[in-house]
Amino acid sequence: MMLGRSAWGVFWMARYLERAENTARMLDAGFRMALTRGNTAASDEWRSVLITLGLDDAYAALGGDYTGPAVTNYILRGHNNLGSVLAMMEAARTNARMVRTALTREVWEATNESWMMIRDMLARPVRESDLGHVLDSIRRQASLVRGAMEGTMLRNDIFNFARIGTHLERADNTARILDVKYHVLLPSLAWVGSRLDNAQWEMVLRSVSGERAFRWLNAGALDPRGIAQFLILDGRFPRSLAYCYNKLASNVVALAREYGETTSACHLVGEAAEKLGRTTIAEIFDYGLHEFLTDSLNGNFRIADAIATDYRFTE
Amino acid sequence: MTSTAISSFDEMIDDQGNVRPAYAGYRQWYDAQDPKWMSRQGKEAESFFRRTGITFNVYGEAAGEERLIPFDMIPRIITADEWKKLSRGIEQRVRAINAFLHDLYHKREIIKAGKLPERVLAHNDAYLKQMVGFTPPGGVYTHIVGIDLVRTGADDFMVLEDNARTPSGVSYMLENRETMMAMFPELFTRVQVQPVSDYPRALARSLAACAPPAFAGDRPTVAVLTPGIYNSAYFEHAFLADQMGAQLVESGDLRVVDGRVCMRTTRGFKAIDVLYRRVDDDFLDPLTFNPDSMLGVAGIMDVYRSGGITIANAPGTGIADDKAIYSFMPEIVEFYTGEKPILKNVPTWRCAEADSLAYVLDNLADLVVKEVHGSGGYGMLIGPTSSKAEIAAFERKLRAKPDNYIAQPTLSLSTVPIFTKAGLAPRHVDLRPFVLVSPGGINITPGGLTRVALKKGSLVVNSSQGGGTKDSWVLAE
């Protein structure tokens, strides 16, 4: 038993941390892509990073150009950009402060220190030569908080609400990356082997830190269908949809067990995990990748909504 | 004598330049340390406080702006004998305060006896008519009290203020000790200091002992009510809830359900038995007090009066630490305990009285003048350190509304050493010991919070005005 508001705070703290980390990964992938491509292709790439993060309209309204330094600085620390890494770290930390008593001292300190470090790092515009270091630090700080959670928190409702936040956010992230890229990738399903498309696929894998795992599993071959299969259905990969839904399912089951009651959120998650478990990649492509991903994102939204209602996050 | 500076009692060094017994063990250790290493430790302490988030918010600064209260690493040291006398005096005073509150809200015998003029209650917002005729669970009004003491001589401790509403600062007392033990572990094996770390457990026990009539079960549910993360003392609210294993609740979490004050949990509404509230009376219940309050619980006063919840401290305790009451404290202590007060009051002129006002106006340059309802060092005049223009401006305010002010002599607060680049240097301090009251008795944590004016010669120790804190030691017997 915990306060509904605390469950809400823990959930969002975890979501913001995950989102900040994912954003850093995506920037890293975009940065690398831009380095290896011509200027036009690079600005397309930055545009698609903004679309994936849902920041394209706000950025266009500012009239910024689509170069690496302009876009990365906007995403990392843009003034009035509520979706910036800086704003998300601050939101994560504010939530942690609000639910301070639900966290162990280690988790609170790791979150607080991460925020202080990233705030200092992003106090001034980030130069291209420092970008790699900054992105690395963001990922490392996220790992520190995750490690502190893993190592010090009781496996109770508090922990499960945090994990639900993490896994929902992660599932969202992977689905959005695939969805933004799918139209670029669609031709390649029939037309394998062009260098351009390989680079695009690699970008997708990099942005979920999956390039090494995929190569290791597939002996270096980049096969689009295989990659989609890997990111959607391979339960061994910690950023695949299958993995996220399995974890979500075990988190809501643990909650149901602790509370002695099954909620609508439990049913939704259970159904989603079960359905994904039965699906093949061929069925997904037959149905339409975009449609599948849209359904998945809508499903995540419904799950988040059900959890907030079932567990009384707000009045 | 050519110097006009007030000479102060220094707690470490006596008039002959010798180290006093309280500091003997510490100085021996200190003199053996490398000053450069000490200096590094000081910086270390600051980063420790930042990391753990021990901050306070300053009103008037950008929202969410958090500041550290400067920490000085030289402990303030009190001997076991000094403490024994102090704690007897504190206990006597706190007993009297609780008896006084009960009397004020029931028979008012002290007024009938002519020891306290009725006018101090009239038009006094701190006196709550909703409390008249009601006895809080366990008969306890002030579950938590912070008595502000100043020292002016070897045996002269005086009470500057009785904080009987929601005294803050206890988290600093605890964290300062933790920090000292982390920084100088070997020091604590050399000098035996009475521990303070029992405070959160004692607080939890003390609150649980005051469960309301409606409580049924094995263990009362205790919650800490905070105004929220932007409150200046939020860190402390979270810290205490965490240390007690209590829920930290905000207004939005609470609602009256079936005659109980309940918190919204992930499994529905759950009744709270004891609420340690860190919001002021005025904001506690929008139905009873300030209707615009977003910090309280609508209907909590009805629940309280029908025995559904314990509120700590009880509403209406503020009348006991009102500055208009303060000057009567010696009579109050004697009236309820039948004993002479062990702790002295600072001589106080009530500007509401014509003779006193005349005296105060003639002597503004030598006096400290305070607002009756002010706190935090705001809205006061320190005559000796103020310019002619400041004094003149204050005089106008005082003449316009004399009832609103009391005046006291400028006290030569004692000094204790702080660590500076040039070595140890004396600075003025006060002391706030923390007292817990339950039906079972009174518990005083040895020591308390020492606040120190970091600027040379300054007498203002408030954290909102550039003061710092120190670990306060009571030596083991």
UniProtKB/TrEMBL annotation, chain B:
Q: Boundaries of each Circularly permuted ATP-grasp type domain copy?
A: 75-453
Coiled-coil residues are none
Question: Which superkingdom is the protein from?
Answer: Bacteria
Q: Which SUPFAM superfamilies match?
A: Glutathione synthetase ATP-binding domain-like
Alphabetical list of InterPro entries matching this protein: ATP-dep_Glu-Cys_Ligase-2 (IPR051680), CP_ATPgrasp_2 (IPR025841), UCP005522 (IPR016450)
Q: Please give the PANTHER family that the UniProt record associates with this protein.
A: BLR5612 PROTEIN, SLL1039 PROTEIN
Q: What is this protein called?
A: Circularly permuted type 2 ATP-grasp protein
**Organism of derivation:** Novosphingobium ovatum
